[in-house]
Amino acid sequence: MWAMRAYEHAEIYFNILCSVDPKILRLTPEDDLIYKLFREEFPSLDVRVIIENELKSTREKAKWRPFCEKFRNVVEDYSYGTLLRSDASKDYKEDNTILVTRIQFFAIEIARNREGVNDSLRKKFEPEPVEEQQ
Fold first, then answer.
1. DSSP letters along 99-134, please?
2. In a domain, 129, yes or no
3. In this structure, what CATH number is given to the domain that contains residue 76?
4. Domain that residue 78 falls in
5. Cβ-count burial of 95 within 10 angstroms (0-12 exposed, 13-18 middle, 19+ buried)?
6. What is the mean pLDDT of the chain?
7. What is the mean pLDDT of residues 67-93?
8. Which terminus in the chain has less CB density within 10 A, N or C?
9. Taking the chain, what is the end-to-end CA distance rounded to the nearest angstrom?
10. Is residue 52 part of a domain?
11. Is the CB of residue 22 less than 8 Å from the CB of residue 119?
12. How many structural domains compose the chain?
């Protein structure tokens, strides 16, 4: 059940990314706080490509755990499994999708949106125009 929910969330989010300017997109009411604390804790993390083995290393888990716990009572389902695109320039595909907590997803995607990383998606994955039937 959680896998279906995670997949549906990913599909909806990607469709939104391809439809609106990511810089104006708000993922939660707490976007400003999430982004501020994320960049304070992870100032040099390059959000363009997230390497799963690095993200889930013992060292990184030790940094992420306290970050995530700050949002226990702030973000609903903060620890829920959520799908993240590893390479921000690509769509959700099996080889480009990793499982993260919801707050990790929000932190990385808010940074991608605010820092212009997701800007090219609208042109790259623009929906095909529907031809009218005569």
1. EEEHHHHHHHHHHHHHTTTTTTHHHHTPPPPPPPP-
2. no
3. 1.10.3560.10
4. 2-124
5. exposed
6. 88
7. 93
8. C
9. 42
10. yes
11. yes
12. 1
